[in-house]
Amino acid sequence: MKRLAIDVIGGDYTVTRFDAGTTVPAGLFDGDGLVSVSRTPTELSIVSPSAAAPEGGQTEAGWRLLTVRGPLEFTLTGIMASLAGSLAAAGVSLFALSTFDTDHILVHATDLSRAVAALREAGHEVFESA
């Protein structure tokens, strides 16, 4: 696996679940930071900075965001497997998502230091903001 450059993004993130058919909350995209909305026949899930997390759903707060520097070509293989395998070996659970340009993982804030150490041990470069 190619050595990846991964940025630890500042701030806390929240994952929120709503019932199917729920409308995406107004203003969700007004702030900074990654916002991801996924809809399936059974749910609407939103990942957002905690300060912008919508109210009224089932929430799990306390996540930190790590982003692979991209853009990544669609032909690349094993990126998420490498990240997930390294974190699994260290006992760190993750919430994964991808965008057109790159891959993102969220880990519990309490696991961030273990996650960073595991990714570095696997040969990846991890950059933490001051």
UniProtKB/TrEMBL annotation:
Matching Pfam families: ACT_7 (PF13840)
Top-level taxon: Bacteria
Keywords, comma-separated and alphabetical: Membrane, Transmembrane, Transmembrane helix
Signal peptide: none
Keyword hit for Ubl conjugation: no
Residue ranges crossing the lipid bilayer per the database entry: 74-97
InterPro entries in alphabetical order: ACT-like_dom_sf, CASTOR_ACT_dom, CASTOR_mTORC1, UCP008459
All copies of domain CASTOR ACT, residue ranges: 59-121
The protein's name: CASTOR ACT domain-containing protein
Origin species: Actinokineospora alba
